[in-house]
């Protein structure tokens, strides 16, 4: 997958978040490396089983990945894998109440049709993400820092490979998963996303 | 009038002073409120500066941990290989972190993490929590791993921590970071409060108070701040302070850090000083007082005071003094009237009115009903050139007390029955105790034998009575029932104590001319004049200079007063002799 990596979010650079942010005086500061944490690869198609690999959670102090997807009319679980409490918010989603979730706790989000919805954390302002509702969601895969992703245990058949970033779908590619062997796709060129 | 203006000026000055005092109080209250708001804004700036300095101190203190060889070595070995650090190395690093943390003393943290370049926690103070924990998505950790020293505030498992992080480098490369956190407790509030005297401070996390400090007796209680938290945090403008009680305000400041997103902040509260009527003057400095233009502040009021006193003297005191002295002289008979010409305005009017009253012989009102006639002595005496003599030749202290007892008698419709004529004789036993002693020399002796020598033929023409004794005067039986006669009859008995003398030399034509109307009155006046002149002459008193015109003017004045007083339309005058002088009596004729 070829695409620009994510840059720092505005909340991370807000000057009101610190009194001091100064160079250490010894080694030059490292550039922001970025990652694909804000991207999610999904397969959509005719598959009625539960979505494969669509488990999400808090890790390292933020959502991993920050863009998540769920099949319309089902629920999506967000697990707190951190050692501290989070309080997930879903902006604009009716019937969802933010609650504190301690380490190891899971919050289930009922996902109606529509969206996407903005995700956040009432305790940590830097946490942000988007929840997409997809009618024919088959499988989810996080994108590694090098841009690679992998779907496991996908039934053979034709699917649409979609790359979601923020509120946008930045790539789509039709694939057919063969029976009994892996499918490797060529690198995808991502469109410039309108939002993050 | 000008002196009254001074009272107006005084009233205005007092009103202005009171208004000024109250306005001053209001203005001072407003000023105190402004000052309080300004003070709170300065407090917030000072608190921010102090916490900025505190963050820097914590960052600097972390250097002792970041340069520790074991920390650097362990993190170097952990970096680049997630999860490969052995449990033993982690435990040793945790031990080292505990020891290093303890050396920070006041800067000792409740949280201390050593993270590798991937943001994974390699070691922490809590050995039990050692596991796979990552902080790589926390902005503080990300910045520290990039080489920045940075502070932050976290909400970590329900507690609020002031965080500090600095990178750890070894061998010319970044190997991780040290993350340090101190929980926000009362000690932080107290340390901050020490920099803000008389201020109370409350740190809060949402609606929960996590640290408090009360600045003393003059500071608002932390409870008051707690109770007002919702009002303070819901204020529209966070830059403005909020009134939370009487003369008490508080200002909100969100915490600087990521925890501000979780509604963590602090409130500084202060109580203003009370403002009295003194208001702004309470803050007046001695130099301000000394710099006052005292020559103007004291001089102008003094000049105004003297001017006011001068005007008061000129307009009132002087006139009162003149009246006081002249009235004293009047009482001593040294003056015949009040000096109205020396007085002005109301005092002149008073003097003129009193003079008029003196001339008219006006007495007290309660005596008026008992007085049937007016003694013209008093009315006429005011015009005398001297106190002793005049046209009529009787003194200023002419007796009036007995005349005041005379009651008016209704005019009978028919002439009264005639009474036997009596020859008037002086009453030897008369004792004029109500009158001042008269000098014998001032009164010519009258020969009693002069009365019988009058021609009897004139008796029936009597039109007026000249009394000089106590005997009742009655006309002779052959007197015609003329109008003057009727008047004489009306007053029979009124002057029982007076001696009476009848004048019987009035010409017949005068009596005939005494018809009602102006002509009759003029005739009556002339008749009275002639009787008066005759009586004076009989008493041996000169009448040179006394003209009919002057005499009539006096009679007119006396007549007007009697008419006014007794509500009558007609007045008759009677001549009589009193103490060797001719005297006049005015009697109202009732309709």
Any key phrases for this structure?
heterodimer; A: 196 residues; 5-stranded mixed beta sheet; 4-stranded antiparallel beta sheet; 1 helix; 14 strands; 2% helix; globular; disordered N terminus; B: 591 residues; alpha+beta; Beta-Lactamase; 4 domains; 5-stranded antiparallel beta sheet; rod-shaped
The end-to-end distance of chain B, rounded to whole angstroms, is 48 Å
CATH topology of chain A: the name is Immunoglobulin-like
What is the subunit arrangement here? Answer: heterodimer
Q: Tell me, what is the CATH class of chain A?
A: Mainly Beta
Tell me the helix content of chain A.
Answer: under 10%
The percent of residues in helical segments of chain B reads 40-55%
Strand element count of chain A: 14
Class per helix and strand makeup of chain B: alpha+beta
- Structure class of chain A: mainly beta
Radius of gyration of chain A: 18 Å
Enumerate the strands of the largest sheet of chain B in spatial order, edge to edge or round the barrel.
Answer: 2-1-5-4-3
| Helix-strand sequence of chain A | HEEEEEEEEEEEEEE
Shape of chain B: rod-shaped
Mean pLDDT of chain A: 88
Helix tally of chain B equals: 17
Counted beta strands of chain B: 15
Residue fraction in strands of chain A: 35-45%
- Count interface residues per chain for the largest interface: A-B, 35 and 46 residues
| First-last Cα distance of chain A | 17 Å
Uncertain segments of chain A are 1-12
Task: Provide a descriptive summary of the structure in words.
The complex is a heterodimer of chains A (196) and B (591). Chain A has one helix at 10-13; strands at residues 21-23, 39-44, 56-59, 62-64, 67-71, 74-80, 86-91, 100-101, 106-111, 117-121, 128-134, 137-142, 157-165, 168-177. Chain A has 196 residues and is mostly beta strands. Chain A has one domain: Cupredoxins -  blue copper proteins (Immunoglobulin-like). Chain A has a 5-stranded mixed β-sheet with strand order 5-11-10-7-8, with no helix packed on it. In chain A, 42% of the residues are buried. Residues 1-12 of chain A have low confidence and may be disordered. Chain B is built from 17 helices and 15 strands. Chain B is rod-shaped and about 165 Å long. The model of chain B is unreliable at 381-504 (pLDDT under 50). Chain A binds chain B through residues 11-12, 16-24, 26-32, 37, 59-62, 64, 82-85, 102, 122-127, and chain B through 51-52, 55-56, 59, 119, 121, 129, 131, 133-143, 145-152, 155-158, 166-167, 169, 172-174, 254, 256-262.
């Amino acid at each position: 997958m070829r695409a620009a990596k994510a840059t720092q979010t505005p909340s991370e650079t807000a000057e009101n978040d610190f009194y001091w942010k100064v160079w250490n005086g010894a080694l030059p500061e490292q550039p922001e490396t970025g990652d694909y944490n804000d991207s999610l690869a999904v397969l959509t198609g005719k598959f009625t089983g539960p979505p494969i690999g669509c488990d999400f959670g808090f890790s390292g102090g933020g959502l991993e990945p920050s863009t998540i997807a769920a099949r319309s009319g089902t629920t999506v679980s967000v697990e707190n894998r951190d050692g501290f409490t989070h309080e997930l918010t879903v902006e604009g989603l009716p019937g969802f109440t933010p609650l504190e979730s301690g380490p190891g706790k899971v919050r289930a989000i009922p996902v109606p049709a529509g969206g996407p919805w903005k995700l956040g954390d009432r305790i940590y302002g830097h946490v942000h993400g988007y929840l997409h509702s997809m009618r024919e969601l088959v499988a989810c895969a996080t994108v590694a820092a090098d841009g690679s992703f992998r779907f496991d245990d996908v039934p053979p058949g034709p699917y649409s490979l979609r790359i979601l970033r923020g509120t946008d779908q930045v790539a789509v590619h039709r694939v057919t998963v063969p029976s009994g062997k892996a499918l490797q796709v060529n690198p995808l060129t991502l469109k410039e996303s309108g939002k993050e | 009038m000008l002196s009254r203006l001074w009272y107006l000026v005084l009233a205005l000055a007092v009103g202005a002073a009171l208004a000024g005092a109250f306005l001053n109080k209001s203005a001072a209250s407003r000023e105190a409120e402004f000052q309080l708001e300004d003070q709170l804004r300065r407090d917030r700036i000072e608190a921010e500066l102090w916490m900025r300095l505190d963050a820097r101190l914590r960052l600097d203190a972390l250097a002792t941990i970041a340069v520790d060889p074991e920390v650097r070595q362990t993190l170097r070995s952990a970096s680049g290989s997630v999860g490969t650090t052995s449990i033993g190395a982690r435990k040793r690093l945790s031990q080292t972190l505990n020891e290093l943390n303890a050396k920070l003393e006041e800067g000792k943290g409740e949280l201390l993490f050593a993270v590798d370049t991937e943001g994974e926690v390699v070691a922490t103070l809590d050995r039990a929590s050692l596991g796979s924990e990552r902080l790589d998505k926390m902005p503080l950790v990300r910045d520290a791993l990039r080489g920045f020293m940075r502070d932050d505030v976290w909400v970590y498992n329900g507690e609020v921590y002031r965080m500090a992080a600095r990178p750890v480098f070894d061998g010319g490369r970044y190997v991780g970071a040290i993350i340090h956190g101190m929980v926000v407790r009362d000690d932080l509030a107290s340390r901050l409060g020490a920099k803000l005297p008389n201020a109370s401070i409350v740190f809060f996390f949402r609606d929960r108070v996590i640290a408090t400090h009360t600045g003393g007796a003059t500071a608002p209680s932390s409870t008051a701040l707690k109770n007002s938290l919702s009002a303070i945090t819901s204020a529209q403008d966070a830059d403005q302070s909020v009134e939370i009680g009487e003369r008490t305000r508080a200002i909100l400041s969100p915490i600087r850090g990521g925890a501000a997103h979780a509604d963590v902040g602090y409130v500084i509260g202060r109580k203003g000083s009370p403002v009295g009527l003194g208001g702004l003057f309470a803050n007046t400095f001695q130099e301000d007082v000394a710099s006052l233009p005292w020559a103007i502040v004291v001089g102008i009021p003094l000049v105004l005071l003297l001017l006011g006193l001068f005007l008061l003297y000129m307009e009132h005191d002087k006139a009162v003094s003149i009246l006081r002295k002249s009235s004293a002289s009047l009482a001593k008979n040294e003056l015949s009237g009040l000096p109205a010409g020396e007085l002005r305005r109301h005092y002149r009017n008073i003097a003129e009115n009193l003079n008029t009253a003196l001339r008219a012989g006006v007495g007290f009102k309660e005596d008026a009903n008992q007085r049937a006639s007016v003694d013209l002595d008093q009315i006429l005496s005011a015009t005398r050139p001297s106190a002793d003599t005049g046209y009529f030749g009787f003194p200023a202290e002419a007796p009036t007390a007995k005349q005041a007892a005379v009651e008016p008698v209704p005019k009978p419709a028919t002439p009264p029955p005639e009474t036997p004529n009596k020859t008037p004789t002086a009453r030897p036993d008369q004792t004029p105790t109500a009158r001042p002693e008269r000098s014998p020399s001032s009164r010519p002796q009258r020969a009693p034998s002069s009365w019988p020598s009058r021609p009897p033929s004139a008796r029936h023409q009597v039109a007026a009575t000249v009394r000089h004794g106590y005997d009742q005067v009655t006309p002779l039986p052959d007197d015609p029932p003329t109008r003057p006669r009727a008047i004489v009859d009306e007053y029979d008995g009124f002057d029982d104590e007076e001696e009476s003398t009848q004048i019987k030399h009035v010409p017949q034509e005068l009596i005939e001319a005494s018809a009602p109307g102006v002509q009759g009155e003029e005739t009556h006046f002339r008749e009275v004049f002639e009787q008066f002149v005759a009586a004076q002459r009989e008493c041996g008193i000169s009448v040179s200079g006394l003209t009919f015109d002057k005499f009539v003017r006096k009679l007119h004045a006396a007549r007007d007063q009697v008419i006014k007083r007794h509500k009558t339309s007609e007045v008759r005058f009677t001549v009589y002799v009193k103490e060797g002088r001719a005297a006049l009596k005015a009697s109202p004729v009732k309709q």
